[in-house]
Amino acid sequence: MKTKLSLLSAALLTASLSLAPSLSQAAIPMAVEGQTVPSLAPMLERTTPAVVAVAVTGTHVSKQKVPDAFRYFFGPNAPQEQVQERPFRGLGSGVIIDAEKGYIVTNNHVIEGADEILIGLHDGREVEAKLIGTDPESDIALLQIKADKLVALKRADSDELRVGDFAVAIGNPFGLGQTVTSGIVSAMGRSGLGIEMLENFIQTDAAINSGNSGGALVNLNGDLIGINTAIVAPGGGNVGIGFAIPANMVNNLVDQIIEHGEVRRGVLGVSGRDLTNELAQGFGLDTQHGGFVDQVMTDSAADKAGIQAGDIIVSVNGRNIKSFQELRAKVATMGAGAKVEFGLIRDGDKETVTAVLGEASQTTETAAGAIHPMLAGAALENRNSGVELTDIAQNSPAAASGLQKGDLIVGVNRSEVSDLKSLKTILADQQGAVALKIKRGKTNLYLVLR
């Protein structure tokens, strides 16, 4: 495995050396016809050594429950499930954020399931990486390597970004080696895309392709403004719509992983929806941006801070938000215990409240919405034989799905559900509509989530 991985990475680095010209050797004219020629080369000479290639190998394990009829035919010794193993290799990108400690940020989907992770440095070195921690819901992973003479990127305040700011993407598309593309910030606070459970993306038209995942999105100073994560690619290639996780969101998650070895997700304790034009008109508001609060969980951080149902949350720590999804992503990626200031509109008046975020537990709506968008609005709790809906907000996605308070989730499609962890794991592997097996009193039924 290790030899194959080294050969794979060696091929990658060879391609990098043969296909990507050395910026330090490029002859760039300083002036044409007496006019200074602007160039990104000086900035890139400083920043590109901090962006690395990530090569992984591993084994995908898939399990499928054996039908009851099969077990009946072959007797009690028949296997309970079929297990298939399939080896895989993958390539992606990463960003060195701490040269002294060797910390590298990449996407969780780049290294998920990997048995070995090898880092290809800009100077041709190959170093095996250790996985420190991940957050699949936001698609962030933190690696660590032991190497000297590393270069790290300074992280910018991504909340200061504006639509129209220049952006440069650095990564390893299609395994060709390090490549640089430029563009602008096309939009901020993109959510509701169904790419990740927690979405608050920077959208950019800087070309991002397969293999750029985990690479750097930087500003013209060479500071990290985001981690390149996903693209809209109907034809399989770049069409000018790429998405990056903001640097501030990455900072919050990385700090938690370094300190605790995991993400201790913050919880506000509200359910709600985006502020629509109809809601804005109904409340006589001159804004259509923000998160409308449908329900406040009893004894939650929101309840203790004085947030009420009907409030419209329009800012977090003084920064405006566009949607409830953006609010959820910002709060969920802040650590438990974080002190957060929320700007509200209540009865047409602006107010400010401060909340100390709780920690994600087994009974929070935020956890339910993160597990599946159509579970948003439900409070979930482990039971001996499944996951119970202990509360549900009116007009929430969970209520619209037909779920009711007291329902016990015992299965998804053909897989059994024993607790929240298994429910989350099963749903993460499903594509499209899924069927929840529900126990409601003495009745068993299926409800479809789309």
Question: Your description of this structure?
Answer:
It is a single chain. A hairpin with a 5-residue loop joins strand 13 and strand 14. The chain starts with a helix and ends with a strand. The strands form 6 sheets. The protein has a 7-stranded antiparallel beta sheet. It is globular, with a radius of gyration of 24 Å. With 450 residues, the chain is an alpha+beta fold. InterPro entries: PDZ, PDZ_sf, Pept_S1C_Do, Peptidase_S1_PA, Peptidase_S1C. Belongs to the peptidase S1C family. Keywords: Hydrolase, Protease, Repeat, Serine protease, Signal.
What is the average per-residue confidence, as pLDDT, rounded to a whole number?
A: 81
Query: Could you estimate the helical fraction of the residues in percent?
Result: 10-25%
Give the tally of β-strands: 29
Enumerate the spans where pLDDT stays under 50 for 5 or more consecutive residues.
1-28, 362-366
Q: Helices and strands: which structural class?
A: alpha+beta
Spatial order of the strands forming the largest sheet: 7-6-3-4-5-9-8
What's the number of helices? 11
What form results from the Cα inertia axes?
Answer: globular
Largest sheet: 7 strands, antiparallel
Organism: Shewanella eurypsychrophilus
Domain PDZ: 257-348, 377-442
Family: Belongs to the peptidase S1C family.
InterPro entries: PDZ, PDZ_sf, Pept_S1C_Do, Peptidase_S1_PA, Peptidase_S1C
Concise summary:
It holds the Pfam family PDZ_2. 44% of the residues are buried.
Could you give the topology of this structure?
Layout: H1 2-19, E1 31-32, E2 35-36, H2 41-47, E3 51-65, H3 68-74, E4 81-98, E5 103-106, H4 108-111, E6 114-120, E7 126-128, E8 130-135, E9 140-144, E10 166-171, E11 179-190, E12 201-204, E13 216-218, E14 224-231, E15 242-246, H5 247-260, E16 266-267, E17 270-274, H6 277-282, E18 291-296, H7 301-305, E19 312-316, E20 319-320, H8 324-333, E21 339-346, E22 349-356, E23 358-359, H9 365-371, E24 378-383, E25 386-392, H10 397-400, E26 408-412, E27 415-416, H11 420-428, E28 434-440, E29 443-449
Antiparallel strand pairs: 1-2, 3-4, 3-6, 4-5, 5-9, 6-7, 8-9, 10-11, 10-13, 11-12, 12-15, 13-14, 14-15, 16-23, 17-18, 18-19, 19-20, 19-21, 21-22, 24-25, 25-26, 26-27, 26-28, 28-29
